[in-house]
Structures are given as structure tokens and as C-alpha cells.
Amino acid sequence: MFARLKNKWSLQLGERSIALDHGGEEAFVSHAHLDHAFSFGGVQKIIASDATLDLLAVRGRPCNAERSNAVELLRAGHILGATQLRAEKDGFASIYAPDFKLSDSLTVKGAEVGECDELIVDATFADRDFPDRHETCQEISDWAVKEQEAGRIVVLGGYAVGKAQELVACLNEYAGNAPLVSGVVAEACRVYGGHGVQLDFIDVDSNEGAEALKQLFCAVVPMSQVNAGLGRRLEELYHKPVSLAIATGWALTHHYSVKAFALSDHADRSELRDFVEQTGAKKVFTEKGGQLLV
After folding, report:
1. Would you say domain 2-128+266-286 falls under CATH 3.60.15.10?
2. What is the pTM of this model?
């Protein structure tokens, strides 16, 4: 039932066509990362979780299309609101699982596994396994505490929606620290709270934030902002040394100019193998390349 045209997947259910993470008359958006979100112009019916639509709204991409619920949505375990789409027609089942993670994180439970005949999966990290998540969170916490004890401002970077909230939770649970956040990161933290994931953070624009900035603070910011230039500006502004780090699954293979922790919200090689086996799928394709895996 899957069809691929110009590097875009759709699900064909008789005369009904559902665009998968791209625009169409009826479209499914799996989660609120901008590489999966799209322009909603022309979309008449949207399939998405409430949390995904709430997160997209704070990212400046509100959707007013009619909600469509005529398919099954399964938890994806990637970020808050991330879902897989499962549909069945004439006894043949298909699952679209673009970005998922089987194991629980601090902010979301792991992916549900449905049975299907054909499957599309994200295979971004199909060639590697990640270190133990608990150990990575402890490593991040220990580093942040050590740097602050040494008299340094600490800045941690992650994707503004998803990873940043995971970093806030990591600092909450492992270091007893409520970090400073602002902008989209703060708004997304509030959306998480509205969906039952309580995070302890300080908004830079609050009175509490103004007081925190006078101390040795710890902040969580979008990963794209973390570079040597940011460190220099903060040192000039607050007259204190600054330690920078980011959290990304690419830390295992990429070189960064700042410290990098291998914390990912994607399935690694072992989880991908287990997920595919548990679905029982006879045909498996990768989301980005369309390559037949098995």
C-alpha cells in the first residue's frame, strides 16, 4: 500500500491517499521536528497527535486543517507526541515509523510495536549502537556539576524541541538542577508540562531568571547556538568562564568544536533490528532512501 514518488512516501488505501510527512490533501505528520513538518497550505485533513500539533504551534507552524482519525496511531518514543501510522486494508497491514526509539527516555515512553506486512522505518543510526542511556545522562550531569563547581557557567545544547527537554529532565533528575531556558525551548517545555511531562526550568525572561543570571547558571539552548562565539559573548557579558557542550547521536562519528555527548532519541542498530523482527514485516523500507532492507 506504500507508494513513493519524488523521494516522498504516501499510503494508498483504495481511492484514499495519505501523504506521509509531506503536504497533500490528507496528510500525516509524525512529530514536531522541522525535517518532518511541512507547509500546511492545501492540506484539508491532518493526522497527528495533539502534542505534535501543540509543539508545531510554538514553532510557528499552526495547523487549522480538519482532524482525521481514520487510521491507528502508535507511540513512537522519539519525542513528545511522536507517532507511527498503522493502517490495514483487506487483511494487509502497513506501518510508517519514521523516527522512533524502543527504549524509554526521561520524557517519553518507548515505541509501541504493531504487527504489519510492510514497514517503513528510520535507519539513521542503523550502523551503530549507542552507549547506555542512564550512563550518558549521568555523564552529562557529572560534567555540568563539575564545571559549575569549578566556577564556570554551563551551557548545554540540543534540538529546541525534544532533545532540549530531555536535557532539562536529565539535569533535574541527575543533578537536581533547574536550568535556564528561553524562547522556543521554554515554550516547548510548557507544552510538555501541559501533556503531563513536568519539567523544572527557569525562564530567562522571568524575575527568577534575572536573578539566576547573576549567579553561576546552567542553561539549555538550541544546539545551533552553541559555538565558540557564544562562549566568548557570555564570558564578556558575565565576566565568568563558560563551558559548552551539546547532546546528539552524531557525537559517535562527528567531530565538534565543543564537548559532545552521545544522547540520541533515535533507534540504534540493536533497537532497529528488534523492532523490525517484532513487527513481523515481510517488506521493510528505509524512510529516506526507500531501500529494501529485508
Report:
1. yes
2. 0.95
